[in-house]
Amino acid sequence: MGVTAANILDAADLLRGKVIRTPFVNAPMLSATLGCDLMLKLENLQHTSSFKARGAYMAMQALDTTARERGVITMSAGNHAQAVAFHARAMGIPAVIVMPAQTPFAKVSRTRSFGADVVLEGRNLNECEGLVGKLIEERGLSLIHPYDNELVMTGQGTAGLEMLEEADDIDTLVVPIGGGGLIGGIATIAREIRPNLRIYGVQTELYPTMKLAVDGKEIVCGGETLAEGIAVKKPGGVTRPVVSNLVDDILLVNEQSLEWAVGSLIEQQRVVAEGAGAAGIAAIHQHRQLFAGKKVGVVICGGNIDPRLLASILNRNMASDGRLARLRIDISDEPGMLAAITASISRCGGNIVEIYHQRLFYDVPAKLAKIDAVIETRGPEHVDEIIADLRGSNFQVQQLEDSSVG
């Protein structure tokens, strides 16, 4: 069959009222930081906080009455699972979602809240596939694949259609790639409407599966990534040729860039994105020369991030920027020392976040002690000012490199 621009235009009509036409907004602060004119397609504001709601609906609305009565099934660790469950409830279709046993409880709970029957199986999506096949055979369920489905890709392409309708001066698109459904659909409509656009896909260095497949290389991947939503071990058979033919290049990003992107979206634009959702920003950050002076549209494809992880990333970013520093201060163990330290830090305008007064667990003489102080500052120069003031008060001070801990 193949997906065409006409299919995506038809899908936009079918999706009207079924999904949210998400905002496509300017990002002035990030633009200044990254050296390009940046716009963000906020699919993190979509139903279930992910673009997956588009493709899932397109695949499910095509089912006949018998298939709807029997029900649907999919395997997913999060966003696609919630999208299928969301639409299944609205359409009155029974849904079985097979999720890896290690899926965070919050994602399992959200999926179940839509009324789906959630089954936990295996450690990853590959290990879920066996059970999915068995249940399809036993119960006649219809598989709604996360990405390797032309109807799914058609639905995802409507996000790109909306971007191009709202900004006729975009010259570059940046789209995260997992299995390839999102970028496949967007590239299809973009090449029809604006054939000279530059289109970049983004994958992590740990899971470069589509890039390796397109380059005809052996697929080797694995490891813990912040962008688990695009950590796909095998690209789609339907999506791979589309990406190969229509996408200019696939950029790889490291974990540090992903952390920076998640944190910067929050701090500079007040946008909450998961690791996969921020991958496009990470690519611009890590490959700035490609985007300098360009008008760039980026898909923020999801916002389902664990709050504890988000808090950790924000603290780690503050540490790497020098806005959160940990100082180790040698003191004599006598009254008034702690007060002198806090007075020095306060005098310089630093804010003490945590302080540890250790007498027992350091290899120091009995009459000495060490203070570890975690301090919020304005940046590296401010840290130097605080250290100088402490040393001026006759304290021995060392800045610890692992200030991101805690």
Q: What value does the average pLDDT take?
A: 91
Q: Largest beta sheet, briefly?
A: 6 strands, mixed
Helix content: 40-55%
Can you tell me the number of structural domains? 3
Number of strands: 14
CATH-derived architecture of the largest domain? 3-Layer(aba) Sandwich
Task: Please indicate the percent range of residues in DSSP E strands (runs of 2 or more).
Answer: 15-25%
Q: Report the uncertain regions.
A: none
| CATH fold annotation of the largest domain | Rossmann fold
For the CA atoms, what is the radius of gyration?
A: 25 Å
Task: Describe this protein with a few key phrases.
Rossmann fold; four-stranded parallel beta sheet; elongated; Alpha-Beta Plaits; 3 domains; 43% helix; six-stranded mixed beta sheet; alpha/beta; 406 residues
Compile the SSE list and pairings.
Elements: H1 5-15, E1 24-26, H2 28-34, E2 37-42, H3 52-61, H4 65-70, E3 72-75, H5 79-91, E4 95-99, H6 105-113, E5 117-120, H7 125-139, E6 142-143, H8 150-166, E7 172-176, H9 181-193, E8 198-204, H10 209-214, H11 239-246, E9 249-253, H12 255-269, H13 279-286, E10 295-300, H14 307-320, E11 324-332, H15 337-347, E12 351-358, E13 368-376, H16 380-392, E14 396-400
Parallel strand pairs: 2-10, 3-4, 3-6, 4-5, 7-8, 7-10, 8-9
Antiparallel strand pairs: 1-2, 11-13, 11-14, 12-13
Helix pairs in contact: 1-8, 1-9, 3-5, 3-8, 5-6, 8-9, 9-11, 12-13, 12-14
Structural description of this entry:
The protein is 43% helix and 19% strand. It is elongated and about 80 Å long. The protein is built from 16 helices and 14 strands. Helix 3 crosses helix 8. The chain has a six-stranded mixed sheet with strand order 1-2-10-7-8-9, with helices on both faces. Strand 4 (95-99), helix 6 and strand 5 form a beta-alpha-beta unit. The chain folds into three domains: 5-50 and 153-316, Rossmann fold, CATH 3.40.50; 52-143, Rossmann fold (3-Layer(aba) Sandwich), CATH 3.40.50.1100; 323-400, Alpha-Beta Plaits, CATH 3.30.70.260. It is an alpha/beta fold and 406 residues long.
